[in-house]
Amino acid sequence: MIEETITQLEAIFEPFRNAKRAETAQAYLKDQFPFIGMKTEVRRSAQKKWVDSLKNIDERIIRWEIIRALFEKKEREYHYVAIDYLNSWPKHYFSPEDAEELRWILSTHSWWDSVDAIASNYLGKWAKFYPEKARETFEKWRFDESFWMQRSCLIYQLKYRDEVDSLYLEHLIQQMNGNKEFFIQKAIGWSLRQLSKYKPEDVVEILANNPIKGLALREASKYLD
């Protein structure tokens, strides 16, 4: 079933192959992945009926197998379809067992575009539904050898608005601030900048109590008076 399902999507996408657009998209992501060459709006329009056909799949394992199969494809557009499909799941699809699958997808073909789209959407919702499991998971991920897993811990609350757990965010920042990797420092600043829109006093306190400097500080301070 999985192979046939993916083949159907391949048949839908193949007529849209465009070498020039693919080259431009590939260059934008620093040549990390090959592309078919589809604009986002074209891809989403083309994939809509295919994604809609998956909505009646009740078996959790099959849903995740479809996502894995998409992420194992080489062209980046298939990864984007997987993310769109995942982020469209209703509440009753979520499971505390998703932690392992989430780790796999976040650490497979990792780059900022996929990690950020998953972490700030599905992962953030999942963490709200299963806070204890999420905390247990993030306490493992913050020590992960992949900085993309660490970045995911820092940004999963991006859409929480005034419901951000500022103390836990500060805890994570304290653990990762020594990592000078660009994508970690950017995530620290981004998470604090977003928090400053709703709890500026918390950000001021975090900055006062922690040696946050450089890129992270510039990002975090952007909306502060």
From TrEMBL:
Gene3D superfamilies: ARM repeat domains, Hypothetical protein (EF3068)
Coiled-coil segments on the chain, per record: none
Protein name: DNA alkylation repair enzyme
Originating organism: Fluviicola taffensis (strain DSM 16823 / NCIMB 13979 / RW262)
Lineage: Bacteria, Pseudomonadati, Bacteroidota, Flavobacteriia, Flavobacteriales
